[in-house]
Amino acid sequence: MTEDGQRFYFTICNNDAGWDAINTRCEIYVTKKSANGWTAPERLPDYINIKGVNTTHPAVWQRDGQEVLFFASNREGGRGGLDLWYVTRDQGLDNLDFTFPVNLGSVINTLGDEVTPFFDKEEEMLYFASNGHPSIGGLDIFKSKGSETTWVTPINAGLPLNSGADDYGYVRNASGFGGFFTSNRVFGGEKTNTRNDDVFEYTIGGRQITLKANVYAEDSGNLLENVAVSLFQVFDDGGENMLITKDFSSGSYLFELLPNRRFRVEVKRDGYETSGYTFATDSPTTYTYGQPLFLKPNAVATTTSPTTGMGTSTTSQDGIMSENTSAITGSSPTTSGGASTTSSGNLLSSPGEAYTARGTSDKDNLLYSSDAPRYEGTYYRVQLAAVKKFNATHPKFSNMAEYGVMSTEQITDKGLTRVLVGDYFSQEEATLILNAVRKTNKDAYIVQYNDGVRYGRVNF
Question: Which residue in 33, 15, 32, 16 sits closest to 24, CA to CA?
Fold first, then answer.
């Protein structure tokens, strides 16, 4: 839609054989606003919609009496794949007389695909998606300042806009405080593959709405450490979608929220009953939501190891520590920092149990013990390092908890401690986390586990 609201550009795509990402051909059309509504769509001239060429993803902005139309096309004269191009027209003339298409140049376009342009007039910034520039994975959203054929080197928009999947179609609201983009990423524990695309909403600055509260023990009134907090969005029909599950070591939790939504909070802690509440961000004057929760102890309280948050022992009434070896099934693994999991990860036995890793690599055929849970089926962790002495406050590890629950594995005959983050129940999710972790831990890699047994390093 043009800024003055008078023209709407869109594509019509045709392929007799059905939709195909390579062979389907799109062309750009325009409809104009009139006193009686919108006019019949008009196809843009042949020199824009070239026969046999894909011309798509129109984006328009206006300046100094000129209308600039960006689009993606695989026409001749480009760098390769789909390139970004632009044409201009005089706003004072109500016709389809555009200039001839001009390629945005080699700073923007690569041998890969550049698609879904969007120009933010306030920032004077071009946003687009590309799989030719260095990316976190697949198509990533990039931004570059400039105009016409003069642009600065594009910058990757980074997490959380980008992921290990395809991310594109970035647009920003007129308010400048948020917008939308499209991604086929895994999400929320419900979408566990990358076969389909979803529309996501994001916020930038503006009215920052937060969920902030503490968790206490009902019997003592003390702040409870090592709590797992899940945030769900609740819909009008009663359904809900898990947005994120995150561990908080301090007992205080914090999330950013969107306005005019309904949410449910669920808090879990070993040895205590699960509790929660529902609320709506519909107040025009309230910017911070949340309420304190007082968790009731279970009949037989379990204690969590203060060093890992994944403790395995139970405390009897006489204070004697004993290993908890009872099987736990049907439990969904918990991750943090938006790393979603599926509910297929049934626990096999208590963490902390020593066992032999029957891996494919000789260096993994060692007796070791782990403070991490073991699950049925195939799952993955990201190994950060193997160190002689693990210090959770070391800069290499201190920020890793945002990507999942941290755990360690003791290699008993070598005196080393593996440091890992996980668990992840899909290759896509493990790859997404690995790409993010490698920004600060370049030697990190993915480790596969089958039915609780470590099978060593894997590459996808």
Answer: 15
Task: Please write down the long-range contacts of 319-328, taking CB distance under 8 Å and 24 or more positions apart.
Answer: 323/350, 323/352, 323/353, 324/350, 325/349, 325/350, 325/353, 326/350
Whole-model pTM: value is: 0.51
Residues 54, 84: Cα–Cα separation, whole Å: 12
- Residue in 419, 406, 380 with CA at minimum distance from that of residue 226: 406
User: Could you tell me which of 407, 425, 180, 182 has the C-alpha nearest to residue 305?
Assistant: 407
Q: Is 431 helix (H, G, I), strand (E, B) or coil?
A: helix
From the centroid of its chain, how far is CA 29?
A: 33
Q: What H or E segment, with its residue span, contains residue 428? A: helix 427-437
Determine the pLDDT at residue 159.
83
**Chain mean position to CA 347:** 26
pLDDT in tens, 67-93: 999 999 999 999 989 999 999 999 989
Residue among 292, 289, 256 at smallest CA distance from 276: 292
What's the CA gap between 251 and 217, in Å, rounded?
10
CA distance 305 to 309: 5
- Cα–Cα distance for residue pair 257/231, rounded to 1 Å: 10
* Virtual torsion, Cα 205, 402, 187, 210, nearest 10 deg: -40
CB 426 within 8 A of CB 342: yes
Beta strand pairing call for 288-289 and 209-217: parallel
Residue given tokens 């869109």 in the structure block:
10
Q: How far is CA 305 from CA 249, 275, 316, 370, in A?
A: 11, 21, 15, 13
